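Q: What does the predicted 3D structure of Carboxymuconolactone decarboxylase family protein look like?
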Amino acid sequence: MQPLPPEEWDDFTKANPYNVFATLARHPELFQGWLRFGGALLNGTLPARDRELAILRTAYHSDSAYEWAHHTRLALKAGLTAQEIESVRHPDALWSVEDQLVLQVADDLHYAGDLTDATWAALCDRYDEVRRIEFVMLVAHYDMLAMVLRTLRVEIEE
């Protein structure tokens, strides 16, 4: 599916000229609702580092080159190093206990569509109820978005 041509962009897309927006804008009502939801997740209560680590792990699992490309930049701004970002694809012993939990949540949700009791207990120890809900919705959202991007063949910008 081709993105809308620039002459048809709304003000948001003009300010954020990414193919994901220009493509989803073909369904204006759904696009506006998705922007509010996605914005709530990106500006939510989770620490930015945790959010971006979870998104990158989800992009890796979903084989979403588009999400990976865009969130690598955001992950660097959130404090992840280039080495850590690369390690999302090849986890090793460098992760802190807190980072391991973020990765485990993304892994559990990807492979089982649920959290193990142990992962849930660790999440409860670390986050309050609001952040737990947000975390699960964040991973589910980016998994869904990866499917949409892949199916609509949204291309990474040059």
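A (community wiki): The structure tokens above were generated from the sequence. Residues 12-42 form one domain. The mean pLDDT is 96.
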